Prior knowledge:
By secondary structure, the chain is mostly helical. The chain has two domains: about 5-80, Rna Polymerase Sigma Factor, Chain: A, CATH 1.10.1740; about 90-190, Winged helix-like DNA-binding domain superfamily/Winged helix DNA-binding domain (Arc Repressor Mutant, subunit A), CATH 1.10.10. Helices cover about 70% and strands about 0% of the residues. The chain has ten helices and no strands. It is elongated. The N and C termini lie far apart (about 55 Å).
Amino acid sequence: xxxDVLGDPEHWLEAHGAALYRYALARMRDEHKAEEVVQETLVxxxxxxxxxxxxxxxxxxxxxxxxxxxxxxxxxxxREIAMNxxxxxxxxxxxxxxxxxxxxxxxxxxxxxxxxxxxxxxxDQFMRILQRCLDALPKRxxxxxxxxxxxxxxxxSVCQELSISATNLWTMLYRARLGxxxxxxxxxxx
Length: 190
């Protein structure tokens, strides 16, 4: 262990806690769960401090551990949340299909122009509305969307983490996008 690079573990929370918490909260969207994974991260880092080789900064090393703790939390939650039947469309999405798509499978009306998505993501108001829309989705569907689209995890990794098939992944992403589209058009573009 390189004590000079690692620093005193008693000061990790003070030095890195806020950054770790922000990172966890942005990915987990739950204050209590974010606090919990930060605590787990610091405990794991303390236990593994002898294996720290100094090739990265302490914060980078801690965030690497935090990423694994977040995925562990997602796995735990996935085991606890009952999944909707992937072969059944929820009623709200079924009506959306009939209203929004023509017989050829194309949009009846072009979706509203939401502007430059990168600029919108920077806006706090949009993020609050997106969060509200994600909260309105079934929890597992929202988590899957967050992992795949926001955290940009590859499909195989998401399937493995949530113990679902690729077909189920794409079906649930499709439904999540439909639900988010309806919610965002109602709450953001109007």
